[in-house]
């Protein structure tokens, strides 16, 4: 999964991302904001189905959207 947001990214959005994703906790805030606004977004790895509703509900007010990143083994 990839998380994407439109610039500028609010501080509340960065805090929410750090609360939800380990990948976001390891980045400086400036780099986290830059990756969220990039064309590829921030790769957050696979997301368990049972967490999807909670994660989407917390991200919706922040403007962050999750997108599925195709895997190299996916059949077109």
- Report the span from N to C terminus: 18 Å
Estimate the mean pLDDT confidence. 91
Tell me the fraction of residues in β-strands, as a range.
5-15%
Count of β-strands: 3
What is the subunit arrangement here? single chain
Please bin the fraction of helical residues. Answer: 40-55%
Biggest sheet strand order reads 2-1-3
Nearest-angstrom radius of gyration?
Answer: 12 Å
Q: SS-based structural class?
A: mainly alpha
Largest sheet: 3 strands, antiparallel
SSE ordering: EHHHEHE
Low-confidence stretches: none
Helix count, DSSP H or I runs of 4 or more residues = 4
Label the overall shape: globular
Describe this structure as you would to a colleague:
This protein is mostly helical. Helices cover 45% and strands 11% of the residues. The protein contains 4 helices and 3 strands. The chain has helices at residues 11-20, 22-25, 29-37, 49-59; strands at 2-4, 42-43, 65-67. Strands 2-1-3 form a 3-stranded antiparallel beta sheet. The longest helix has 11 residues, at 49-59. It is globular and about 40 Å long.
């Amino acid at each position: 999964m990839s998380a994407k947001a439109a610039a500028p990214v609010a501080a509340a959005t960065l805090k929410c991302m750090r609360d939800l994703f380990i990948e976001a906790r390891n980045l400086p805030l400036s780099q986290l904001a830059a990756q969220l606004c990039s064309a590829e977004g921030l790769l957050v790895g696979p997301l368990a189905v049972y967490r999807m509703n909670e994660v989407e509900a917390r991200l919706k007010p922040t403007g962050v959207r999750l997108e599925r990143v195709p895997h190299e083994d996916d059949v077109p």
